[in-house]
Here is the input.
Amino acid sequence: MKTSDFNFDLPQELIAQEPLKDRASSRLLVMGKETGEIEHKHFRDIKDYLKAGDCLVINNTKVLPARLIGERKNTGARVEVLLLTRMQIDTWEVLVFPGKKARQGDRIVFGGGKLEAEVLEIIEGGNRIVKFTFDGLFENVLDELGEMPLPPYITHKLEDKNRYQTVYAEHDGSAAAPTAGLHFTPELMKEIEEMGVKIAHVTLHVGLGTFRPVKVDDVTNHEMHSEYYVVEQEQADIINDAKQAGGRIISVGTTSTRTLESVTDDKGIVCAKSGWTKIFIYPGYKFKVVDCLITNFHLPESTLIMLVSALAGKENVLNAYKSAVNNKYRFFSFGDAMFIVG
Here is the structure.
């Protein structure tokens, strides 16, 4: 299976640069999982395709304002730091740009000294281990000084940080948003619950690896990035009960999908656990629990479009993407949505 099999033509102007003011007003392409039949709707119409007994599984991770702009303490040179993984209360693995301005022992200051970082170590791949010093809670300092780490294809500045968070974001830890969930409003979530649809929460902290391109010709040779997840027993019970009662498990986003498929056993039972997953889902994969998927439109040749193709078939998905392009849907993180329904 070749990476190029998942390529498609995407005009640059269809890459959404800003979120819509009304989250639920995004367009929604509804596609039959088996038939490939397509309907064009708006996201708030998703209620028409849900029914009592279904279970909507959402990822309640919260994006950290993890992009920090500072300067080297001894020279004043500008340095950008991107938080990746928290190792201790005050110690993080980070990306630094430019890397040559962050040698071991160097100190970087942010916000006029409100936050300071010392480079402890340079690790394999060029990332740095840094230790921060600050007053009070790190999260409060980060909220004041940090910016949202928007994907590289978004060039506009985000005026409202909350628009890169889902309305149900709860647990800090992501470097990128689970973007399929950005279309939900509190009102829409309430209406869905009142229909008798169960809502279960999982947590997967999205890493920057989600934007890493597939650089190998053969899909099976790609090494997937690792991300941390948590599934609580109460939430696993909600999903299992819905499945056993005949309801559909509807995953909101590829991150929820990867989490569910990582914690489900061979009998289709979702297990409560936490850990790191490197699961790579591409055509040929047999889904253990996920029936339907709400997702955004993804980059050509990405692991995300491969996951979607595994659920609905590559030809169906590429045909849907062609229809989306022809109908000028908005693509990627701030773009429109797709519902693969079965």
About this structure: The CA atoms of residues 80 and 97 lie 5 Å apart.
